[in-house]
């Protein structure tokens, strides 16, 4: 979420799980396909070749996230609350596949359309520690992380529109304060396991695989000791129809996401990211309101991006693709519908969105850009981000009840 998959006990006001597949919402499917085709044609006519390709990759990312209900927020919460590591193990599979694909790409710098492929390797300092912790708290209050917010919006989860709005606001405020956190507070230079340690990409790959395997084994042993509730199976079609109808295995989605992230890297020269687009959207809105955004340190080196169309921003196009892909997946499964917004879940979404947006800017990314993209790029900051986000999740377990949100218990089942 980060696709967010709440326990059954959390789904008050949301669509209940069904033991059988629902009928596809064909008018919505057709409408989604038309919207995607129009956007593809527009990008093909007005932008370079990378942008329409980013739209296609984004569609596939959103489609995959929704079909598997692939979670980051829920994976962290289940693990920290009751010791269920099923989803966290799927993260390890995803990361193992990603580093395997990223290593030769980053070592050679190969891209399809010129330029050099570069990973997300960011500084390690106070801003990372504070930002990742804030994001961990925020995603548990806001109902989803960066990818989860996008795919939940695409699936029609009403309260996530509030989360998205305040995510954008938080990211914009973070950009305004960016100089203070990154220039005025202590930080080490970016550390790559491949290029900063002498390991090289082969050595860094080997160390990474060992680490992922260790986490995999630890979560299995914890489950054996705690015997937590398992994730309930979601309804799904049989055979080839499963591509379009019903849930996908988490491991399948993990590998798909790794492949699509590597494809993003070789297409645009950077891994998958999400929140830089939120900062761009919010900054453009602030500029339209008369605020001198171009004077902010965050935009000093990216003035051209600020002045260009949002459709020239590949991360924006990816985000639109994720939303549309999730919409198509939800409609194909007959699952798209808006649900109720209450005062409590609206308040949680506001707080969570602000914390995530601000935290992502401080931490040089979110669960996708910092955690997924950072670790796949062999950046130490990606590992630190994951640890601090887990710590933030732990604190959020105590805060969630104050906002009317449930916390998984050992007797709960999960969907």
From TrEMBL:
Swiss-Prot/TrEMBL keywords: Cell inner membrane, Cell membrane, Membrane, Transmembrane, Transmembrane helix, Transport
Q: Which InterPro entries match?
A: Sulf_transp_TsuA/YedE
Task: Quote the cellular component terms of the Gene Ontology held in the record.
Answer: plasma membrane
Pfam annotation, one family: Sulf_transp
Q: Which residues form a coiled coil?
A: none
The cellular location(s) given in this protein's UniProt record come to:
Cell inner membrane
Q: Does the entry feature the keyword Cell membrane, yes or no?
A: yes
PANTHER family from the entry? INNER MEMBRANE PROTEIN YEDE, SULPHUR TRANSPORT DOMAIN-CONTAINING PROTEIN
- Family stated for the protein in its record: Belongs to the TsuA/YedE (TC 9.B.102) family.
Q: Name the chain's protein.
A: Uncharacterized protein
- Species classification: Bacteria, Bacillati, Bacillota, Bacilli, Bacillales
């Amino acid at each position: 979420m980060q696709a967010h998959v709440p326990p059954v006990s959390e789904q008050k006001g949301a669509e209940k799980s069904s033991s059988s597949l629902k009928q596809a919402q064909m008018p919505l499917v057709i409408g989604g396909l038309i919207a995607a085709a129009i956007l593809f044609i527009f990008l093909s006519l007005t932008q370079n070749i990378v942008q329409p390709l980013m739209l296609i990759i984004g569609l596939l990312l959103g489609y995959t996230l929704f079909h598997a209900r692939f979670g980051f927020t829920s994976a962290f919460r289940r693990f920290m609350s009751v010791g269920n590591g099923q989803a966290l193990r799927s993260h390890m599979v995803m990361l193992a596949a990603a580093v395997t694909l990223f290593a030769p790409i980053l070592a050679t710098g190969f891209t399809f359309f010129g330029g050099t492929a570069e990973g997300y390797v960011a500084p390690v300092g106070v801003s990372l520690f504070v930002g990742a912790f804030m994001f961990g708290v925020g995603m548990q209050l806001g109902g989803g992380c960066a990818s989860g917010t996008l795919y939940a919006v695409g699936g029609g989860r009403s309260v996530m529109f509030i989360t998205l709005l305040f995510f954008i606001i938080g990211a914009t405020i973070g950009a305004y304060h960016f100089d203070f956190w990154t220039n005025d507070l202590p930080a080490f230079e970016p550390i790559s396991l491949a290029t900063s340690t002498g390991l090289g990409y082969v050595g860094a790959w080997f160390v990474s695989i060992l680490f992922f395997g260790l986490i995999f084994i630890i979560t299995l042993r914890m489950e054996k000791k705690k015997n937590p509730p398992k994730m309930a199976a979601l309804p799904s079609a049989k055979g080839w129809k499963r591509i379009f109808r019903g849930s996908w295995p988490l491991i399948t989605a993990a590998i798909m996401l790794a492949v699509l992230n590597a494809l993003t890297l070789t297409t645009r020269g950077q891994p998958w990211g999400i929140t830089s687009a939120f900062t761009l959207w919010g900054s453009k809105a602030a500029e339209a309101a008369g605020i001198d955004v171009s004077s902010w340190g965050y935009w000093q080196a990216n003035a051209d991006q600020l002045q260009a169309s949002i459709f020239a921003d590949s991360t924006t196009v990816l985000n639109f693709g994720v939303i549309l892909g999730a919409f198509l997946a939800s409609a194909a499964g007959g699952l798209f519908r808006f649900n109720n917004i209450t005062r409590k879940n609206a308040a949680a979404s506001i707080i969570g969105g602000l914390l995530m947006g601000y935290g992502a800017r401080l931490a040089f990314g979110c669960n996708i850009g910092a955690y997924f993209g950072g670790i796949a790029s062999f950046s130490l900051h990606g590992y630190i981000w994951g640890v601090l986000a887990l710590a933030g999740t732990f604190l959020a377990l105590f805060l969630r009840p104050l906002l009317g949100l449930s916390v998984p218990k050992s007797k709960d089942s999960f969907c």
